[in-house]
What we know:
The protein is α/β, with parallel strands linked by helices. It has 8 helices and 10 strands.
Amino acid sequence: MLAPLPPCALEIRGLVKRFERPAVDGLDLAVRAGEFYALLGPNGAGKTTTLRMIAGLTRPDAGAIHVAGIDALADPVAAKRVMAWISDEPMIYDKLTPREYLEFVAGLWGVEPALAEMRAQELLDWLDLAAHADERCEGFSKDMRQKVALAGALVHEPQVIILDEPLTGLDAGSARQVKNVLRERVRAGGAIISWKSPNAWPTASASLRTAGSSPRARSRSCTARRGRMADDAGAAGGGVATLEDAFLALVAAPAAA
């Protein structure tokens, strides 16, 4: 007997957003707990618009978004409590130390102080920030600032994590630390949704394989084209060598038909 599928961490039905032309046109998408889902596509394919709507930053013209079973359009605050957005440009407070920043963010989410302190210390250790936990962020490198931003996004233990190419500009060591933390979130049953432009596909491929290395995790990708989603590329390694291969195969399919 097949094991039951994990519950949906993110479910989208009939999502539509128009500007001068349709940016997202009737999108249906389901991402389950314990999945790393990569959304690929060329510039202008609707990737950013889609994830901005998921995060509550842009209001759709039509459709439904459910995050961990919460209607994100009817109750956006509740949906945001179980989500995290990690940008490629770290947005932190320079005059705070990493420890103070994590305490501040945890307080915004209503995390109990003792629990917040424990989670903060765990994240500081995981991301190799403990030695700098009491230094102001204003003198930090891009690597360190990105890791502080990641810790702030994870301190309330979100169920759905949205990535905006968070490895951009990181050195190999820092990128590995970030991927290790994200892999642990997937293993714990979290869902990660990442979108990638063409120049980030090598990083996307590596991130997807890393996340999918756990027997409890599953990695999938899908390609955006003209505001719609092409066929799901399935689990990493399922007939394609990299996510770039998956993208090219999916885009080429209509032309060959």
